[in-house]
Write a structure and sequence with these properties.
Bound molecules: NADP nicotinamide-adenine-dinucleotide phosphate
Radius of gyration: 19 Å
Helix content: 25-40%
Oligomer: single chain
CATH architecture: Alpha-Beta Barrel
CATH class: Alpha Beta
Strand content: 5-15%
Number of strands: 10
């Protein structure tokens, strides 16, 4: 039996998402890893409870998160029913479609057929009538943008999602999307892209600024570069780390001598600031005013609690920002 922490809203910061009415927590919880069949159910449950107890109201899912695809939505659906039934209106739940999900010509990409069918499947797995946010998970160069965007508009009109967002769309397509959605009175709530100390593409290619100009929020995925921007790999590869136990997306080859040198140098800066590297890495993202939230992954409640410390991070001095930039050039 779960009883939510009565002080859960005391310490979290909530930030306005673009020019919308929505406030999102500075830290959101992602379900890409740690919610599939390879993770014990009670471990996943403990992470979700710890998140909600800390004021994390935003959960980020996708149709294909697992393994197996769909497993993360199924698991959260069970937790929502068991633990959070009386808290539904305190939660902001996102899911996505457009990556490979089922066999055949309609199981992937961003046709109206795929997006509509996938969301119906997601709602069944999540045991929900609607999600708060539905994303087109990637840009589809073969489907007319109008078809994808009109499907997003209609999904909101059908009441199956309250808001829509775009993830990993290139600049020009995203700009077209912002305009289309605005003209159809379903403004894009948020853009989801990878922004972290190691990948600053959204800053350099203008995606971050374009979202702000369009009135959309920006949410960063993989803010810790899947764990590289923490103390996880400073002394080798721990047996319970992502590289060791689930190397589908993060492989040992990522730990090149140059990357290790950068991690160590960044760790020194974090230590001088009196905090962990993870806190410095998350605070650096949140220091950008266009950023609404960062979606952290956590394989335990302890990691999640450690990452919450970034909310107390000191501001960055110009010297610190210059030193960080110098390490990364
Ligand atoms: N839109 C997209 O295409 C897209 C793509 C990727 C991700 N996402 C979203 O972004 C979310 C987060 O992605 P991510 O999991 O890559 O995020 P991340 O925060 O960069 O990495 C999370 C992993 O880092 C390690 N970690 C976290 N905190 C730590 C700490 N304090 N000390 C040591 N290790 C720590 C853990 O790995 P271990 O403990 O297992 O080593 C954890 O699972 C996903 O769940 C998903 O919702 C979206």
């Amino acid at each position: 039996m779960y009883t939510a922490n009565p002080s859960r809203y005391t310490h979290m910061q909530y930030r306005r998402c673009g020019r919308s009415g929505v406030l999102l927590p500075a830290l959101s919880l992602g379900f890409w890893h740690n919610f599939g069949c390879v993770t014990p159910e009670e471990q996943s449950r403990a992470i979700v409870r710890a998140a909600f107890d800390a004021g994390i109201t935003h959960f980020d899912l996708a149709n294909n998160y697992g393994p197996e695809p769909g497993a993360a939505e199924e698991r959260l659906g069970k937790f929502l029913q068991d633990d959070f039934a009386s808290h539904r209106d305190e939660l902001f739940i996102a899911t996505k479609a457009a990556y490979d999900m089922w066999e055949g010509p309609y199981g992937s990409w961003a046709s109206r057929k795929h997006l509509m069918a996938s969301l119906d499947q997601s709602l069944r797995r999540l045991r929900l009538d609607y999600v708060d946010l539905f994303y087109c998970h990637r840009y589809d160069p073969e489907t007319p943008l109008n078809e994808t965007l009109q499907a997003l508009v209609d999904i909101v009109r059908q009441g199956k999602a309250l808001y829509v967002g775009l993830s990993r769309w290139p600049m020009e397509a995203a700009r077209f999307g912002y305009d289309y959605l605005c003209q159809h009175d379903v403004p894009c709530l948020i853009y989801q892209g990878r922004l972290n100390l190691f990948d600053q593409a959204p800053k350099t290619d203008g995606i971050l600024q374009a979202a702000a100009t369009a009135g959309a929020g920006f949410i960063s995925f993989s803010p810790l570069a899947q764990g590289l921007l923490t103390d996880r790999y400073l002394n080798g590869i721990p047996s319970d780390s992502r590289i060791a136990h689930d190397p589908r997306f993060l492989k040992a080859e990522a730990l090149t001598p140059q990357t290790m040198e950068r991690i160590r140098a960044l760790n020194k800066i974090a230590t001088a600031r009196g905090e962990s590297l993870a806190s410095t890495a998350l605070a650096w993202i949140l220091h950008h005013k266009e950023v609404t939230s960062v979606i952290i992954g956590a394989s335990s409640p302890e990691q999640l609690h450690k990452n919450l410390a970034c909310l107390q991070s000191p501001d960055f001095s110009d010297e610190e920002l210059a030193a960080i930039a110098a390490i990364l050039t």
